[in-house]
């Protein structure tokens, strides 16, 4: 007997163009109700489902989560292909100076990208739902996010710069209660993560404290907040995103390593667009750099700074050059010359890739543009 949730989710998938009929899809499965239901629903709808479970070994029930997912996939007819990864989130958190949650998320999405490529999946699916969307918008609102943050989670987005496979959220218009009702009716097992009841996490506090208060005062609050995120997302998709794409086309330049933003283009824009262009350039060139308003302001400050000034970011450096802000990944930085080579005034010194000569000028040049990339002027007093 068909469940009405199957038809509603199928309609959402068709309306959003998330999957073609019978497509191969990789589902990220934790063992919780949302992801298990996502896997079961897509399988019932006729998609060729594969599953990936990540075990971080961080809590007592982690192995039981893995066992549940293994058993459910093995008991299907035909069986659901399952890959299990054991990953060390604590080691990554220490190495990258991240929170444990940030490290686990980064490792999980990296594993999803790799396995999607391995099985040639058309998409990666997660079990995010309408209540998650409401929580996300409220958290972003409390953190002072702009329109893109207030759009919450999109139904579909690229997995990352290294993959063409999209991440889809087919349950984003479905409530948590509807998901649990489907799982109970279909006999889909799941396990509860104790951390989902730990109010020390901001998201859990929003879920267990703030949203119930809002629902008591404003019945339907969760659904309405999620609707606001959807409407804002549609606005962003049809206005902000095209405008950003146009400005990046006018301002951004790909380089052999990293990229650059032309100063002429940045200066022509108001500050709000300058910061957004900086964030877009960071996303392309230094994906580990902070995607925050504070960091964007620091980089924006280089526009009026002296040539040679820089801002260090995650995985690279942003340099103020004569005509641009240059985003240079750490992997592209040349090895320092060691031992140091003395360069006497007025003498050419051979270095790897060319020669260097430093001449002292009694007076400053009429223009800092020497007309050739092989000559640069610097202020000796500031060296």
**CATH topology name of the largest domain:** Rossmann fold
Oligomer: single chain
> What helical percentage do the residues reach?
40-55%
How far the N terminus sits from the C terminus, by CA atoms, comes to: 77 Å
The arrangement of helices and strands along the chain is HEHEHEHHEHHEEHHHEEHHHEEEEE
Per CATH, the class of the largest domain reads Alpha Beta
The secondary structure category is: alpha/beta
Q: Judging by the overall fold, what is the CATH architecture of the largest domain?
A: 3-Layer(aba) Sandwich
Overall pLDDT score:
91
Strand order, main sheet: write it out: 3-2-1-4-6-5
CATH superfamily descriptor of the largest domain: HUPs
Rg computed from alpha carbons, rounded to a whole number of angstroms: 26 Å
The main pleated sheet reads as: 6 strands, mixed
Q: What overall form do the CA principal axes indicate?
A: elongated
- The domain tally reads 2
Strand content bin: 15-25%
Annotation field: number of helices? 13
What is the tally of beta strands? 13
Report on this structure:
The chain has 383 residues and is of the alpha/beta class. It folds into two domains: 4-231, Rossmann fold (3-Layer(aba) Sandwich), CATH 3.40.50.620; 253-332, Chorismate Mutase Domain, subunit A, CATH 1.20.59. Helix content is 44%, strand content 16%. It is built from 13 helices and 13 strands. The chain has helices at residues 4-16, 33-44, 62-75, 89-96, 100-119, 130-142, 147-150, 176-186, 202-217, 221-251, 263-267, 271-285, 293-300, and strands spanning 24-28, 48-55, 82-86, 123-125, 156-160, 163-168, 252-254, 259-262, 310-313, 316-320, 324-329, 349-351, 354-356. Strands 3-2-1-4-6-5 form a six-stranded mixed β-sheet, sandwiched between helices. Helix 2 packs across helix 8 (176-186), helix 6 packs across helix 9 (202-217) and helix 6 (130-142) packs across helix 10. It is elongated. The N and C termini lie far apart (77 Å). The mean pLDDT is 91.
């Amino acid at each position: 007997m068909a469940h009405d949730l199957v038809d509603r989710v199928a309609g959402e998938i068709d309306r959003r163009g998330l999957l073609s009929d019978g497509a191969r899809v990789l589902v990220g499965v934790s063992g919780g109700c949302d992801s298990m239901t996502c896997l079961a629903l897509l399988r019932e709808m006729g998609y060729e489902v594969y599953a990936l479970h990540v075990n971080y070994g961080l809590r007592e029930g982690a192995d039981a989560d893995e066992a549940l997912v293994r058993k459910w996939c093995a008991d299907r007819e035909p069986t659901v292909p399952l890959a299990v990864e054991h990953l060390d989130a604590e080691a990554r958190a220490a190495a990258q100076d991240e929170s444990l949650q940030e490290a686990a998320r980064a490792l999980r999405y990296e594993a999803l990208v790799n396995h999607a490529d391995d099985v040639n999946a058309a998409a990666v699916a997660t079990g995010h739902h309408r209540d998650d969307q409401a929580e996300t918008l409220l958290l972003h609102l409390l953190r002072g996010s702009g329109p893109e943050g207030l759009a919450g989670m999109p139904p579909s987005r690229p997995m990352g710069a290294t993959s063409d496979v999209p991440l889809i959220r087919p349950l984003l218009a479905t409530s948590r209660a509807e998901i649990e009702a489907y799982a109970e009716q279909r006999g889909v097992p799941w396990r509860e993560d104790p951390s989902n009841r730990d109010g020390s996490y901001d998201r859990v506090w929003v879920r267990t404290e703030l949203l119930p208060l809002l629902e008591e005062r404003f019945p339907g609050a969760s659904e309405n907040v999620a609707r606001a995120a959807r409407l804002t997302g549609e606005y962003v998709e049809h206005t902000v995103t095209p405008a950003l794409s146009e400005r990046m086309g006018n301002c951004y330049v790909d380089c052999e390593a990293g990229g650059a933003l032309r100063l002429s283009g940045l200066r022509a824009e108001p500050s709000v667009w300058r910061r957004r262009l900086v964030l877009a350039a960071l996303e392309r060139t230094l994906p580990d750099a902070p995607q925050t308003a504070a960091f964007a302001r620091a980089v924006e400050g280089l526009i009026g700074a002296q040539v040679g000034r820089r801002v260090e970011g995650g995985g690279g450096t942003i340099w103020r050059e004569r005509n641009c802000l240059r985003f240079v990944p750490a992997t592209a930085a040349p090895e320092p010359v060691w031992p140091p080579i003395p360069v006497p005034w007025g003498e050419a010194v051979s270095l790897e890739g060319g020669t260097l000569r430093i001449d002292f000028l009694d007076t400053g040049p009429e223009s800092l543009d020497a007309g050739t990339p092989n000559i640069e002027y610097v202020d000796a007093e500031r060296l």
